[in-house]
Amino acid sequence: MNIPHVPLVSVIVPVWADRAAARTLLGQLPPDPRVEVIVVEAERVESLGESTPLAPERADVRVLQTARGRARQMNAGAALARGQWLLFLHADSTLPGDWLTAFEAAIQPPAIGGWFRFALDDRSWQARLFERGVALRVRVARLPYGDQGLFLTQSAFDALGGYRDMPLMEDVDLVRRLVAHGPVVEVPCAIVTSARRYRKDGWFRRSARNLVLLSLYVAGVSPTRLARWYGDPIG
User: Fold this and answer.
1) Does residue 158 form part of some domain?
2) Residue 235 falls within a domain, yes or no?
3) 85 close to 77: Cβ distance less than 8 angstroms
4) Host domain of residue 16
5) Widest CA span of the chain, in angstroms?
6) Total domains, the chain
7) Coil, strand, or helix at residue 195?
8) Which CATH number belongs to the domain containing residue 51 in this structure?
9) Where are the alpha helices (DSSP H) in 69-124?
10) pTM for the complete prediction?
């Protein structure tokens, strides 16, 4: 009798307008029997002038399409995932070379979820200051964002009901429920995220806007209203 192979972790990557970044990410994730990769594209990507398959030669990468919305896309990927753990990764992020070794060491019982450390692909002092600010927020408030590679067991994801269908703050919502649900850990290596939005919008302007949006969300302002102020959260 053939026993189906169960990967250790399913890496789920939502994609909208960041296909070039997704290709780079896939190129940095070599095939490994412990890992399956699921790319979830928003529908109608052809309207962006890009319809070439993301991973035409990767049998270990599954690509599916679903309705646009990061929460919907990540839930769709989780529904197909076979891994014991689910790792949700932004397309413009990069996993360090030793991520899997560090991940395996960190996810010992009783941990049910967690995240990686945060870093930006920028050498400026503003980037280092922002990284320290994120580390402080995570240490004090236990509140990482999705760009830190949120992960949790399949059973914990199911128990929490997955991501709520929200246009913004879906990662904050899941993290708050996850931390309340059981023990969490931080993997002691950093996921490196693109700093292009910070360079484009201005380091302090974007940081201040993010802080204001988070404060308003915690105060009870609806994610739908916040999304209108924020602009396009994917892409």
Assistant:
1) yes
2) no
3) no
4) 9-230
5) 59
6) 1
7) coil
8) 3.90.550.10
9) 70-80, 99-106
10) 0.91
